[in-house]
Amino acid sequence: MTENQIDAITVIPTGKALGAEVQGVDLAKDVSEDLIARIKEIWAEHMVLLLRGQFLEKERLAELANLFGGLMVPGSHSFYLKDGHTPGDSARIADVPGVTYISNLDKEGKPQLKTEGSGSAELLWHSDNSYMETPPMGSLLNAVRVPMNGGGHTRFCNQYLAYETLPDDLKQEIEGKHIKHDRSRNTSGKVRVTFEKAATREDVIGPVHPIVRVHPITKKRALYLGRRYDGPSSHIIELSEAESEALLDKLWAHATQEKFVWEQDDWQPGDLIMWDNQAVMHARTAVDHTQARLLHRVLVQGGPVVAPWAEEAAEGAAAE
Asked: Are 250 and 34 within 8 A, CB to CB?
């Protein structure tokens, strides 16, 4: 069968709580609307897709984001560039709009332990750009250079199951509640160059989203926790600081259990991973800082975060 025909697609589930490998597709070549629609169906079902042998130019990766729903420029880019910086000033922002370098390389192309971004550090569980009013629907991550036996494994966690398996008392406790998502810090927890660290909860800048969201396609409920940093930072706005921290501790411990996880532990150049930020969190193990790691990432536009309960304006909504 011919590549990039719907009949040529093979789907191989990981056997874990989420994830599947998709074969028979070369996204560097022309693809039909029907093929994209079929991949989107598979994506909604498995939440995380692995496609090997996808050697994509940055421009093509951005085109694919548009085909899958629209290219979203990450919040970190807009924060940085609005201060008069250019993409060339950063080792993280590519010369193609919307493309991010996920890398441990400095501006000279040498691997480092620490960089202006996340460098070689471990990245804790999070959902991409949850700190935006309209977060991305999905993320596409394409491997260019990866270490050999040098870490950098990407882990994914099923947040449908996280919600479904919550004890009834916790489900009741979070009903109607919202989290304010701190946009002042990057994925590794560092305060962004264009922000100052909040001194109090009232100083935290970012949108308010419901703790539980309804997926626009599957209509299932999923936990939506975003990111967790030392306070004052993201918090449940309806609760006191102590109550918020105690409830978030319980939710994060439950949501990131190993039984909900699949790990991509054998990255190869040309691998493309697509994940659904509406139902998945992800994390990364530390990287051997003596080996180069470079991947290109784009975000796919999403829609409003819809709560399963009657949506009302949350008190304490973010002041911009």
From this structure: no
Question: By CB neighbour count within 10 A (0-12 exposed, 13-18 middle, 19+ buried), where does 63 fall?
Answer: middle
Task: Report domain 6-300's class.
Answer: alpha beta
User: In 219-282, where does DSSP find H-type helix?
Assistant: 241-255
pLDDT of residue 277: 98
pLDDT tens for 199-208 read 899 999 999 9
Side-by-side strand order, sheet with 261-264: 123-126, 280-284, 154-158, 261-264
Helix (H) or strand (E) holding 224: none
Task: Write down the pLDDT at residue 32.
Answer: 96
List helix spans (H) across 139-265.
159-164, 168-174, 241-255
What is the distance between the alpha carbons of residues 147 and 135, in angstroms, rounded to a whole number? 30
Neighbours of 207 (CB within 10 A): 21
